[in-house]
Design brief:
85% helix; rod-shaped; 2 helices; mainly alpha
């Protein structure tokens, strides 16, 4: 058990001084930043699509429900 603890200690100490572990952390932070940016961009895109759809729906409703529509009572 003591040998295992010593090996674990040296392995952890090597990671703290190793630049490879630092690169992995930097890549993880960069990936997190990209994921957050994409998520915010998707929300903005979704709101734009929603606005365009609602605008189109109102235009169609106005055209159908407006003076262009003749019913049977006329």
């Amino acid at each position: 058990m003591n040998d295992l603890t010593l090996k674990l200690y040296f392995w952890m100490r090597t990671l703290t001084f190793c630049e490879e572990a630092q690169d992995i952390v930097e890549y993880a932070l960069l990936l997190m930043l990209i994921a957050c940016s994409v998520t915010m961009g998707m929300k903005t895109l979704a709101l734009g699509i929603d606005h365009a759809y609602n605008s189109l729906a109102l235009s169609v409703q106005h055209y159908i429900g407006g003076s262009h529509h003749r019913g049977f009572d006329d």
